[in-house]
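Take a look at my tokenised protein here and describe the backbone shape.
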Amino acid sequence: AALLVAAVMGGMVLTVHGGQVVDVDGGPVLPFMMNMTNPFHPSKSLSFAHVLFLGFSLTYADTAGLRGYIGQDVTQLGRYYAKTKFGCITHCDSSDFTGIDGILGLGMPDAALASIPEPLFFALSDETGDPANQYILNRRIFTLVGTDSAAELHLGGFDPHSTKQDMKYIRTTSPAEYSVPVSSISLGGHEFLNFASAAQAAGRTSIPGILDSGTSCLVVPDSTLSGLFLESPYTRIMENLKRGEPLYITIGEHQFEIPFHHWWLYPNEKPCIQSGPDGFEGILLGDVIFRALVVMFDLTHPRHPVIGLAPRNPDYRLVVEGCSH
């Protein structure tokens, strides 16, 4: 059976023994260090099945590409396991995958590939599966608790000791991605999401913010988005940066404080705030948010997920690496 230990948002794919990483642009890249990963060996699993020979091809927003084929096996996460399909990576053009065993399927079913209809988290909580090949999670909830250097995954809920305030709950704005309504970003008394009067009159007073643990920084629009804003949020942020000041983000009806040390990159002495790609009408809430807040994903009703957010307790200590409790 396959054992997954690396987790980011998206569908489930595993680095497969014998796969390769290449530089498609011909420029210098760091070499792929296979000895820094724990690749999945299909030949060592008696329960593995190669179910789709046509395979898959994925390209991410940062242009990283993955190719491979679809397999099926009994897959375990912590104490939970189920027989399910997953992608086996045989080719990757990004050396960022050095040290990464795979991508854990914590995404939404509506965003899954047709060939992999059920993300791993849903397979592990699917009561209609084969009882002989599964031990399922009864509560379809997971939580990410992160620090500057590590993170842990809670299954079935969250540890109340990890938060320093009560959890606030917000319904997502999409059944295909973990997006929440963001109505304000401010720092030092300056508001950066200045919605135009016409937009406000039309009821547009927020913008989707996608919670993405695979994005390092806060990514905001660098345009007015065809009149949604009076001016570019990114430009306004860059013009009003203040060292030492916390950043405030209003999600739903709740304001959250992002301490300075979570949105500032000390080695580079610059903010962990980036401009969004052209045409992207949203905000990416990356690791800047996950380091400051405990983020809970309640998928009890898959078409209407609920996000829970609470300031992380700085005194909370992550479990010892390798512990599954």
